[in-house]
Amino acid sequence: MKFTKLKSSKISEAVANQVLKLIKEGSLKPTDKLPIEMELASSLGVSRTAVREGMARLHAMGIIEILPGRGTYISKLPEDRLLKIKRKNIEDIKTLVEALEFRKIMETSMLEMVIDKITKDDLIQLKGCLEKHKKGLTKNVFPAEGDMLFHKILAQATHNKVFIELYDDIYLLIIEFVLRVKNYKSEYKKSLVDHEKIYKSLLERDVNSAKEAMKKHIEWLIEIISQSKE
């Protein structure tokens, strides 16, 4: 594998993108071990902090595994998911916007199933996602894990195998959105507020409020991505 020096106003994003690029090209494969932090920083021409933040992004997305005392490895991704990484054009904003438009329909509709089928354990897990998201913001670290997991737990709360598998198919496009977030602290604060509204509506079994909150949330995501073209 060959890393190239980076020049970017968002260095940690560029670090994560370069690892995804190497996976796409086949230079990095599942179970491959990444160089240590110091070596990566030197190869990429960035600080160790930027490498650490980039790795935190990839770890939150499930792309890498960090094993204490052993190092950092490319995750054992399912073959179909790996193929999707390789086929994706990560510069195609139009495709990403279209995926978010699909998510708006999908995730607002799924709340009708969630309202009927959500369990106490599902609600506990959603609350945990909110806490993880909040902790990421207060500790000034990348808060994507709680943010993405919230949507994934919502899909699982349908208790519908087909729906859950369909959601997993667009998971990589959610990852790409995460990589495109520029001012992530302020934007993830807004995302947390939206998620709290959805969660409150679910607690109150108010399907219309939940659907409206989800619709506005994803329309806001579309606006952010559209602005990234500028």
Question: Tags for this entry?
Answer:
single chain; Arc Repressor Mutant, subunit A; mainly alpha; 71% helix; two-stranded antiparallel sheet; 11 helices; 2 strands; 2 domains; 230 residues; Four Helix Bundle (Hemerythrin (Met), subunit A)
Element layout with pairings:
Layout: H1 11-25, H2 37-44, H3 48-61, E1 64-67, E2 71-74, H4 79-87, H5 93-117, H6 120-138, H7 144-156, H8 161-169, H9 171-180, H10 184-203, H11 207-227
Antiparallel strand pairs: 1-2
Helix pairs in contact: 1-3, 1-4, 2-3, 3-7, 5-11, 6-7, 6-10, 10-11
User: Which architecture name of the largest domain does CATH use?
Assistant: Up-down Bundle
Number of helices: 11
The helix-strand sequence is: HHHEEHHHHHHHH
CATH structural fold name of the largest domain: Four Helix Bundle (Hemerythrin (Met), subunit A)
- How many beta-strand elements? 2
Shape: elongated
Spatial separation of the terminal alpha carbons: 32 Å
Unreliable stretches covering 5 or more consecutive residues:
none
Instruction: Work out the radius of gyration.
Output: 18 Å
CATH superfamily of the largest domain: GntR ligand-binding domain-like
Number of domains: 2
What percentage of amino acids are in beta strands?
A: under 5%
Going across the biggest sheet, name each strand in turn.
1-2
Structural class, by secondary structure, is mainly alpha
* Biggest sheet details: 2 strands, antiparallel
Helix content: over 70%
Can you give the mean pLDDT? 81
Level-1 CATH class name of the largest domain: Mainly Alpha
